[in-house]
Structures are given as C-alpha cells and as structure tokens.
Specification:
Structural class: mainly alpha
Oligomer: single chain
Radius of gyration: 28 Å
Number of strands: 0
Largest sheet: none
Shape: flat
Helix content: 55-70%
Strand content: under 5%
Distance between the termini: 62 Å
Number of helices: 13
C-alpha cells in the first residue's frame, strides 16, 4: 500500500480573504460590550447631562423647564448656611469613619482571621449587619434610641444606672454621633470582609520568616501584614469616603436631617429640595455639586495613591 502524496503548502496563500483576525476579535468584544455600554449611557451618562441642564432652571418638575437662571442655583447653594452645615457634617462622618470605623473593622478582621475556636460563627455575626437593609437598621436604632426609658433600650439602661436619659436623636450635640454609631454597625462588616480577604491573600511564608527572625505579633502586623494590605486599605478608604458623601437612607429615616439641621447631609439636603419641596432645578444643582466632589476626590485619591502594591507590584 503506497502512502498518500503530500499536499504542497504555498506560504503565500492567506487563510481567508476579508478582515484580519485582530479586527474580528475586536468586533467580537465590542459586540458583547455593546449592551452594557448602551445601559451605561442610558442610565448613567444621560441622567448626568440632563441634571446639568435642569440645574440651570428654576423648575418644579411640572411641565417644561423654561425659566433659565444660569448659575443662580449654584450661587444660592454655596451661600446657604444649611448646605455648608451639611458639608461640615459629611466631613465629620468621613473623619469618624476613617478614624474609628475602619480601624475597628481591621481589628475584627485580624481577630476572626486567626485560628480561634468558632471563628466561622464570629465572621457570620460580624458580617450579618451588612446583609440587613438600611431601612431595617434605621428603624432598629430608632427603637434603641427612643427617649422614653420604658421603650428605649439605651435610656432604660441609663435609668437603671441612676443616670438621666438622653434624647439621642433630639439633642443637637449628640445626634450626629448617634447616627454614626448606626452607620458603623451597618457597614463595618463589609470593610471587615475586605480586610479579611486581604489578610488571607498574604503568603504565610512571609509571616513565618518574620517570626523566625524574632518578630512578635505586633511587629508582624505593623511591619508585614499592614504594608501588604495597602491595596485593600486604599479600596476601603475610597469606598468609605464616597459612602459618607452619598449617605442618605439611614440619616433620613432616623432624623430627617434634624434637629435643626444638626444631622443634615448633602444627600438629605438634595432630597429635601428636590423631592419634598419640588424644587427640582435646585435639587439637580445639589446633585451636580455632589457629583463634582466625588469626581475630584476620586481623581486626587487615585493620583496620590499610585504606589505599587507590595504583593502584585502593580
């Protein structure tokens, strides 16, 4: 039986006429990205431009916007003492979040990340508040902060200790910090999960080598674990700041921005004018200012934290 003759191969003949392989791949990728791009343009980019447009009108949302006032809404906002108070409250929330909430989350992540008995149960308990809705969280803390000692858990404890009850949500001096406690209880589980994931990604060989060199637990954490968590910390700080700027639901349900604007935030300020008083042009201007703050912070933060990660080198 004779072997089949070999088919000559002509190197000059191309695979197929038409588009190149790279062009076909790019078209294939664009085809899959097109639905997401359409949704992004429709529900993100378009509303932003429409908000910019309506922010230049004195408009109540009924009928067409015809009374153009230019930058009048913006001038009125930055000269409003209530809005400046809201910006100050947001700044306080940011400082408290970075100084108290995130360190607490990291501490709990280190604790439940070790080989402790029942650590799985503790992880579930600490993360459970983040699973609950913000509405449930606000209602629960409203019950805890009830000024009536017979109904409010905290004031009931104060009365048992022969102390005066506190109007947690009615006292201008403590209301913002009372709200911050609710925010911390709600969100520290999310940041704890971020830190826990970052700790688990650290190679154990590095920590074992440090222990062999005589490093104790504190030195191991501050000089080994913490630098290797730099990318996780950056993400946590970034999300915490943006979340504080946009915080609305818990604050609105618990206090409505009161008493006397003591717990007002930029988001509650926007909602009050846009959807309660139906000054949608003014509310749109507030939304654009919040958007500008978020964009400026994002750009500056990304620029200032562009150091390479110790684990990936990126």
């Amino acid at each position: 039986m004779q072997p089949l003759p070999a088919i000559p191969i002509n190197p000059k003949v191309k695979d197929a006429p038409g588009l190149s392989r790279r062009t076909k791949d790019n078209l294939f990728i664009a085809l899959f990205l097109l639905p997401a791009l359409i949704l992004f343009l429709l529900f993100v980019i378009y509303p932003i431009f429409r908000s910019v447009y309506y922010s230049t009108f004195n408009w109540n949302g009924l009928g067409p916007a015809v009374k153009n006032i230019g930058v009048g809404n913006y001038i009125k906002i930055i000269s409003d003492e209530v809005f400046l108070k809201a910006m100050g409250n947001v700044l306080i929330l940011i400082v408290c979040s970075l100084g108290l909430q995130l360190p607490l989350a990291m501490l709990l992540a280190v604790m439940v990340g070790k080989n402790l008995p029942g650590r799985g149960l503790f992880r579930t308990i600490f993360f459970l508040p983040y699973v609950l809705s913000e509405v449930n969280t606000a209602i629960m803390f409203m019950l805890l902060y009830n000024a009536d000692p017979e109904r409010g858990f905290l004031n009931g404890i104060l009365v048992l200790l022969h102390l005066e009850p506190i109007a947690w949500l009615g006292d201008m001096r403590v209301v913002l910090f009372a709200v911050f406690v609710a925010l911390t209880w709600k969100y520290f589980g999310f940041h704890m999960l971020l830190y826990l994931t970052g700790l688990q990604n650290i190679p154990t060989d590095i920590e074992e080598a440090a222990r062999m060199d005589g490093a104790n637990s504190f030195q191991n954490f501050f000089f080994i674990s913490l630098p290797l968590l730099s990318s996780t910390v950056k993400t946590s700080v970034y999300m915490s700041v943006l979340g504080s700027i946009q915080q609305f639901i818990i604050v609105w349900i618990m206090t409505g921005g009161g008493p006397v604007n003591a717990s007002e935030t930029m988001a509650t300020y926007m909602y009050r004018f846009g959807f309660v008083r139906f000054q949608l042009g003014y509310g749109s201007a507030v939304a654009i200012i919040m958007f500008i703050f978020c964009v400026i912070f994002s750009l500056l933060y990304q620029q200032l934290t562009r150091e390479p990660d110790y684990l990936t080198g990126l």
